[in-house]
Specification:
Largest sheet: 4 strands, antiparallel
Strand order of the largest sheet: 1-2-3-4
Helix content: 10-25%
Distance between the termini: 48 Å
Number of strands: 23
């Protein structure tokens, strides 16, 4: 049985995580390590998971960098912040090039690389030029050019939908308001698959959480305002969906309440308390916020009101605080 042990901060040397697996190897992977704040480098090691042997293969001249590697496991992009919290972007235009600042022709203020294509030159990235919501771009590293694929002026992309285990994006999801999906190519097989699942699970949001290496099996997550999340396995050869498990099985949608909080605000924020009451506010400036749930019958509503009437004022206070923070 696994156990965890508290480690005093004075003994913590830094943070580490698995950056990528190394295909064709026997249990080898790339591990990223960043030391404490005084260190000005981010390190990448090649580690054998079976023997524990490690080899330092990369020193990136940025502290606490976010790193992206190409499909040959070569570090090609890194982003960090300087002492004034200003973004610092570095990249390798080609695999053999030295680290150099990302030119303005590619990125403005911020940039995050999502995926390299098979040519190890074209990347998919989220970019914001001047603090506006980041948009999805295709970037040619060697040429220093970019092409905007999709974005919105009023909100960031919340997540990207990928076409399989080693695939590139086929869609994006926005969820600052009512969740919305934009397919980059509606005629692609993955977009059609996702659209069909959305139809089958009407009223819920479907996302892909994982894939088998041959893309024959897909782990999907179905969630909504009354469904914290249900996991299924999809067999693409038969289009059969098998239930794996659901989150928070003790939540009964029939026992959830609907309240109306008469306080319209400009922004949308979701706040949940320990009894899974959720507040949705600011879909439009003229809309009042709502505590969302099920239980539409009078008896269920009375039970909820008796047990949770005091929470409405608490949630109003949270909403007032959120409005002030977001203004």
């Amino acid at each position: 049985m696994a156990t965890s042990t508290f480690v005093p901060s004075s003994r913590v040397k830094g943070s580490a995580f698995v950056l990528d697996r190394i295909p064709g190897s026997k249990g080898e992977m790339l591990v990223y390590f960043s030391g404490r704040s005084a260190d000005r480098e981010s390190l990448i090691y090649r580690v054998n998971a079976h023997t524990g042997e490690r080899e330092l293969i990369e020193k990136i001249p940025l502290r606490g960098a976010n790193v992206a590697v190409d499909r040959n496991q070569r570090a090609r992009f890194a982003s960090s912040r300087d002492d004034d919290a200003e973004p610092v972007l570095r990249y390798r235009p080609t695999a053999d090039a030295d680290w150099t600042p990302v030119p303005k022709s590619i990125a403005g203020r911020t940039m995050g690389v999502l995926e390299f294509e098979k040519d190890n030159n074209t990347v998919w990235a989220e970019i914001s030029d001047a603090g506006e919501p980041a948009a999805l771009y295709r970037v040619d590293f060697a040429k220093g050019t970019r092409e905007k694929v999709h974005g919105r002026d009023d909100q960031d992309i919340s997540r990207v939908l990928y076409s399989g285990f080693d695939g590139v994006p086929f869609g994006v999801i926005f969820d600052a308001g009512k969740p919305g999906i934009q397919y980059l190519d509606p005629n692609s097989d993955w977009a059609k698959l996702h659209a069909g699942l959305m139809k089958n699970f009407a009223g819920n949001l479907v996302t892909f959480a994982g894939f088998s290496r041959d893309d024959s099996t897909v782990l999907i997550v179905v969630s909504g305002d009354r469904n914290p999340g249900t996991y299924y396995l999809l067999d693409r050869s038969t289009n059969k969906v098998s239930l794996l498990q659901s989150r928070f099985l003790d939540i009964d949608p029939a026992q959830m309440c609907v309240y109306r909080v008469d306080r319209p605000i400009q922004h949308r924020q979701i706040v949940r308390d320990h009894d899974n009451v959720a507040v949705e506010v600011g879909l439009r400036a003229d809309q009042a916020g709502r505590v969302i749930g099920g239980g539409e019958d009078d008896a269920a509503r009375r039970r909820c009101q008796d047990n949770r009437a005091g929470r409405v004022e608490e949630l109003n206070a949270v909403m007032r605080f959120t409005q002030a923070a977001l203004s």
